[in-house]
Design brief:
The structure is a homotrimer.
Chain A: E1 2-9, E2 15-18, H1 20-30, E3 36-41, E4 47-53, H2 58-70, H3 84-93, E5 96-102, E6 105-106, E7 112-118, E8 124-133
Antiparallel strand pairs in A: 1-8, 2-7, 3-5, 3-8, 4-7, 5-6
Chain lengths: ~130, ~130, ~130
């Protein structure tokens, strides 16, 4: 099992950042495993990780817009930091995802990309990438 | 590690299809692994995979109804294809699920079944089934 | 691979119970694996498992409040048991989560805890903990 990680600086409160290339770079430059799977996870509670379309970035804007409409920031939360909307979105999207690795390639669909979802930025964030051999 | 897959033809725009039997058939007829776990994943961005009750199919109708109410199709989306509701639902339900395998049996609860969730059909869909030995 | 499990008695209809200590206790007292990962899963269809902040319990109250607002119990469901809101919440939160294990420690963020989410209690519940060696 290999342990890798990388850092991200987010720029606004809510943002979906395509991290597919970062993951591919780790696979190509830092890993010797060609078959197995990778586990992507984050140590944060106001962010998420998801797989969705990366051909048209309008999809990600719509996703953030829909989430904002369903879960408004202005709600009367009991959590004093006032960012419970971000915690809720984190659990809805999830904070970890596994992807199969075959012949050195991520087993993703033609339109699938991996996204880091910032819900309470801007912040410095970290992504763990664990790679397992078949 | 074994790699299997199967195809699905969905019939309407939104549908939850119980694929538990397809998975069990792969385990019984095509796999020699009896202990470990299986990873189910899909290469699509407008569909999902989830585990929920398969005793009363009314549960699945209610789930589709609730999702439709929360995330209307008619919203003013920026994604030109107009199916951002389906992308959102895909990320909410998720596109992958792991299930433990013990003594040749899926470790599922009495009422649990595995569902392919179509959110933008009808379409031809594919399900990946990777089986890992303990 | 090791198989462990434990039982939980929930006390109200909706509740988020921090199970991080139960998981750590299994790792310390019953497991000999120090590097690898653990798979937490539940056999239920009206409950979930998620990772979120466990420093301020107000976060969990806000999450339950937001979910209740988005998905009311009183909706006109076709499922005769009338608890389709709980089934929906189960699929939204998910029923399984993996956590990396390094040097005998769960690889969780500083504020992250593991929560069992009850959506249709009070009930007796069960949590499966499978531990895999690197």
């Amino acid at each position: 099992m290999e342990s890798h990680n990388f850092f991200l600086q987010t720029n606004t409160r809510e943002e979906m950042i395509d991290i597919t290339e970062e993951i591919k770079e780790i696979l190509q430059k830092k890993s010797s495993i060609r078959n197995g799977y990778i586990k992507i996870s984050i140590p944060h509670t106001t962010a998420g990780v998801t797989i969705n379309e990366n051909a048209d970035r309008a999809v990600e804007n719509d996703i953030l817009h829909i989430l904002r409409k369903i879960i408004p920031k202005s709600r009367d939360y009991s959590h004093a930091e006032g960012n419970s909307d971000a915690h809720m979105k984190s659990s809805l999207m999830g904070t970890r995802v596994d992807i199969m690795l075959e012949h050195g390639q991520l087993k993703l669909g033609r339109w699938q990309g991996i996204f880091f979802c910032e819900f309470d930025g801007p912040r410095s964030r970290k992504v763990y990438v664990n790679i397992f051999k078949e």
